[in-house]
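Good morning,

Attaching, inline, the backbone tokens for the sequence recovery test we're adding to the shared suite. The designed sequence is right after.
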């Protein structure tokens, strides 16, 4: 039984005439009669009493007519729902965004996207880039915004912005007069860092070890503003993304460039390889690419 057969059947039932129904459906009467006869043969019952001038539904026809109306209504609703999804009248995106990146760029991006597509629901997971990569891999989020590098065997990467990490320190710190800082200058310092769920934590630790020392990490936190406040109270130094530091307005903190490859801050949207990408997610990625620097 096909949807088209049910559609033609219901039109004949409504019009009580094969001739009128054929005109409504824009097909020939013989073709319509043949389709209804095939449906009756498939079901093994007569659907219409053709003995009178106007065809009438049999008992079996009455039952099929009642069920067919419901099925066709559900099918139309399903079709409309799919069209609505394609045209972004509705949809749902689950995306992971680290707080340090989210604070820098995404409030205005999310607001702008929602203004364009109010029917799309956004669920935001706020975790470190390392955790978000794991969530993208296990499929619990559709996409993640992370700091490079990533495992290109597992993920597709869509670059969206590039900036740098900077050293922040108290204005009275002995290094405050330098124009540029090297990692070897930091071997005796107390580090206040984002915790292990953040990729930046691991990059800083690795850079210190490459330079020949184990960093003394005295405080770890998941909140960048808490870290900045501790530096403002002269509790240690930290390395944070420049856009984040510029959101923290304190006369007690200075930022200095660090001469090391690890200070590059490259952000990408990552997608699990070979996973279906919804219409809503495609539009979200396109919107972010167009507007993240504006």
């Amino acid at each position: 039984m096909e949807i088209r057969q049910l559609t033609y059947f219901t039109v004949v039932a409504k019009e009580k005439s094969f001739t009128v129904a054929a005109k409504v459906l824009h097909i020939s009467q013989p073709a319509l009669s043949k389709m209804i006869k095939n449906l009756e043969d498939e079901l093994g019952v007569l659907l219409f009493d053709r003995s009178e001038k106007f065809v009438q539904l049999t008992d079996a026809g009455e039952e099929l007519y009642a069920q067919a109306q419901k099925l066709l209504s559900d099918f139309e609703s399903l079709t409309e729902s799919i069209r609505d999804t394609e045209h972004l009248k509705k949809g749902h995106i689950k995306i992971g965004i680290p707080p340090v990146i989210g604070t820098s760029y995404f409030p205005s991006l999310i607001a702008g996207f929602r203004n364009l597509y109010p029917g799309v629901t956004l669920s935001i997971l706020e975790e470190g880039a390392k955790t978000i990569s794991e969530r993208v891999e296990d499929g619990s989020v559709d996409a993640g915004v992370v700091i490079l590098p990533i495992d290109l065997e597992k993920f597709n990467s869509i670059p969206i912005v590039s900036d740098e990490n900077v050293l922040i320190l108290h204005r009275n710190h002995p290094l405050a007069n330098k124009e540029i800082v090297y990692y070897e200058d930091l071997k005796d310092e107390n580090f206040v860092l984002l915790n292990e769920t953040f990729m930046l934590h691991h990059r800083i630790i690795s850079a210190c070890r490459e330079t020949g020392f184990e960093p003394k990490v005295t405080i770890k936190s998941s909140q960048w503003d808490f870290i900045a406040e501790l530096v403002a109270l002269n509790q240690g130094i930290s390395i944070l993304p420049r856009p984040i530091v510029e959101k923290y307005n304190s006369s007690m903190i200075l930022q200095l460039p660090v001469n090391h490859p690890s200070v590059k801050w490259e952000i990408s949207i990552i997608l699990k390889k070979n996973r279906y990408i919804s219409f809503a997610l495609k539009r979200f990625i396109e919107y972010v690419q167009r507007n993240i620097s504006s």
